[in-house]
From TrEMBL:
Keywords: Cell membrane, Coiled coil, Ion channel, Ion transport, Membrane, Transmembrane, Transmembrane helix, Transport, Voltage-gated channel. This is Voltage-gated hydrogen channel 1. The gene is LOC116306326. Residues 4-91 form the Ion transport domain. The lineage of its organism: Eukaryota, Metazoa, Cnidaria, Anthozoa, Hexacorallia. One of its GO terms (cellular component) is plasma membrane.
Length: 126
């Protein structure tokens, strides 16, 4: 049973590193695509990147020194939860912006229809 626990622990550790690697890749691509200035203006992105880099660094360090004890590192679990909270806030913000875009498009169509109606009425008067 001990070897199964060890296998599961190692598997979860490497899955964690793989997921964090994807998040680090996301940060690198954001910096490449949007520029470093984007992170200076978007404080949430900077905090998110900081949490991911710290978590990734700790995971790699633990892997390198073969540390099995998490004493004093419970904070990293809380920091990982930050990623979940961040994703929820991004989804809520996206939803709000999406609805604003829909409202803007509806307003624009209404204005076009009003302008067309006014143009037709003016043409009938002439």
């Amino acid at each position: 049973m001990d070897s199964e626990d060890h296998f599961a622990s190692n598997l979860l550790h490497f899955v964690t590193i793989a997921i964090l690697s994807l998040f680090v890749l996301e940060i690198v691509l954001k910096i490449y695509a949007l520029g470093i200035e984007y992170f200076w203006f978007e404080k949430w992105e900077m905090l998110d990147a900081f949490v991911i880099v710290v978590a990734f660094t700790i995971e790699i360090t633990l892997s390198a020194i073969h540390a099995n004890e998490w004493k004093g590192l419970e904070l990293i679990i809380v920091l990982r939860l930050w990623r979940v909270i961040r994703l929820v806030t991004v989804m809520v913000t996206f939803k709000e912006e999406f609805y604003e875009l829909i409202e803007d498009e509806i307003d624009a169509k209404r204005k076009v229809d009003e302008a067309e109606t006014e143009t037709e009425s003016l043409q009938k008067k002439d």
